Amino acid sequence: MRLAELNWPAAGTLSRHLPVVVPIAALEQHGGHLPLFTDSMLLAEVVRRAELELGDGVLWAPLFWLGNSHHHLDFTGTLSAAPRTYLDILGDLIDNLVKHGFRRIVLLNGHGGNITPARQAVFEARQRYREREGLLLIEATYWQLALGPRALPPEFTQIQMGHACEWETSMMMRIAPNLVGAIDSLEPVPLEAGFEPGTRGWLTQDRSATGHIGDPRSAAPAKGEWLFQVFTGDVVAYLERVISWDGRSRLG
């Protein structure tokens, strides 16, 4: 069920226990071979597939394409909200939904730069509504929802998500091959930001002159389809946990 397609009286009749999912993504550089809208396009495809499986069990808000992408601003075309601005925007979206009485709100994320502000937004919102019982506020990044280590087919080069990498390039090859540029001459870029296990503050140009992080050269449409199926299954399983939550227990 899509919030954008309802009128306000119809929205008013919905159960306030119905999970509301707000997909959040970005418009930012994705190397020299992928379009700026990659994160939003990939998340939209995961959402489309999950919607088919979940039916009216979830209320989907429109995809919010503006993300926290300041670390990509050295690359032309990136549009971004600053981290604190973005955190406040997400907080406002949560506040709007809570005001309307909804109790299960999921920020379904499709961009790495959104993870920290989205987690902070749900944390701060829970403090604002600390007297509210039965309130569930969640940040969930679609490629991080596997329970335990993921078993990858042997043909995969990468073991985790990068940026404009084997995984994202494969997924774009699956849904929009006409938007994928040449990859054969691209050099692999290490996935690590450096100084692990600490967290380094970085700009994309600190790590990659071309904008991609990972190894796009081994991308293939079949890998993209496998990833979409796996990620969609993860999202559906996770949202089913949100749907079945009893409103009281700590664990879902």
List the helices and strands and how they pair.
Blueprint: H1 8-12, E1 20-24, H2 38-54, E2 59-60, H3 83-99, E3 104-109, H4 115-128, E4 136-141, H5 166-175, H6 204-207, H7 221-244
Parallel strand pairs: 1-2, 1-3, 3-4
Helix pairs in contact: 2-5, 2-7, 3-4, 5-7
Q: Main sheet?
A: 4 strands, parallel
**Overall morphology:** globular
What structural class do the secondary elements suggest? alpha/beta
Low-confidence stretches: none
Oligomeric form: single chain
Count structural domains. 1
Based on the coordinates given, report the CATH architecture: 3-Layer(aba) Sandwich
**Strand composition percent:** 5-15%
Superfamily (CATH H level) name: Creatininase
Count of DSSP strands: 4
The CATH class assignment is: Alpha Beta
Total helical segments: 7
Q: What is the spatial order of strands in the main beta sheet? A: 2-1-3-4
Percent in helix:
25-40%
| N-to-C SSE string, H for helix and E for strand | HEHEHEHEHHH
Attribute tags:
alpha/beta, Rossmann fold, 36% helix, 252 residues, four-stranded parallel beta sheet
Textual characterization of the structure:
The chain is α/β, with parallel strands linked by helices and 252 residues long. The chain has a single domain (16-244), classed as Creatininase (Rossmann fold, 3-Layer(aba) Sandwich), CATH 3.40.50. It contains seven helices and four strands; from the N terminus they run H-E-H-E-H-E-H-E-H-H-H. Helix 4 links the parallel strand 3 (104-109) and strand 4 (136-141). Helix 2 (38-54) packs across helix 7 (221-244) and helix 3 crosses helix 4 (115-128). The longest helix is centred in the C-terminal third of the chain and has 24 residues, at 221-244.
